[in-house]
Amino acid sequence: MPCNQLSALQAAVSRHCPEKVTHTAFDFLTLYRTETVTDPVLVVYEPRIYIVVQGQKILHLHDQPLPYGEGQYLISTLDLPVSGQITHASAQTPYLALCISFSSSEMEQLLWESQSAISRQARKQALRKETGSPITAMGVSQITDELLDALLRLVGLLDREGGQTFLAQLYKKELLYLFLHGQQGHVLQETAHGKSDLSHINRAISHIRRHFQERFEISTLVKIAGMGQSSFYKRFGELTGMTPVQYRTKLRLQEARRLMVHEEMKAASAGFQVGYDSPSQFSRDYRKTFGRPPQADLRCIRSMGVETYKQQHEDVWF
Length: 318
Description:
By secondary structure, the chain is an alpha+beta fold. The protein folds into 3 domains: 3-191, Jelly Rolls, CATH 2.60.120.810; 197-242; 246-317, Arc Repressor Mutant, subunit A. It is 52% helix and 19% strand. The strands form 2 sheets. A 6-stranded antiparallel beta sheet has the order 1-2-9-4-7-10. Strands 3-8-5-6 form a 4-stranded antiparallel beta sheet, covered by helices on one side. The longest helix is centred in the C-terminal third of the chain and has 19 residues, at 244-262. It is globular. The two termini are 30 Å apart.
């Protein structure tokens, strides 16, 4: 990877991202910046392509760590609840990243236009080795010279006056084409097929996200996905790195923490609000995820001020 191109991209992202999060003139492109490391924050990574141009972060997919940093990109093809933490950032060398959103219809159109067909077997065996990921719906890869050149041209459009949307869309298509033919092309290709396992699992995930606070039989998800029971649980685990119950638990904990920190709800009430019957179970799950039991975590946050905590640790994720 040419150092001068990476340095130019770092300078361009830094110039156009003075705040924690900058939504650019192009609706598919978001820039991120922070000058401090953060506590672990529970977030849901939506289907996106995330590129780190400076600094480093680490995601925890249930119990599996997935670090990535400068010169690497991450592709997420499902809504995945992860614990994320910025681990390398300073005022002199801030964490800088950009995010490119995409839709399944865009990938389908691109596949049709380019007549691309990534061999399933050829990519499936190599995918985990190449991406360093314990799951198949999210992986990390190195930025290639071609990707770096296209990213630099895309961000460079932000320096030009007037609407550059047409060119931005062309550059986005070029980037998606390169990602499609990169290490994680097989996974991206599955997002374009409505009958793929990923598509079936996504239906179940959508149901969990809408109803995570409610009580429902997990077996209901098998019917929603339209898969056999054994196949559903196997593929759910392979794609997300967790069981459906663990997935639901992550969403419950994220919402409970939001209620406690930003709506001043007591820990026990927040636990019940999101679906917990047992305060002790809520406390155990909370501590495992955030490193401190609910009350201790809340005291720590309030001691530094909720707004200060939000600005330092949360804003860069949302």
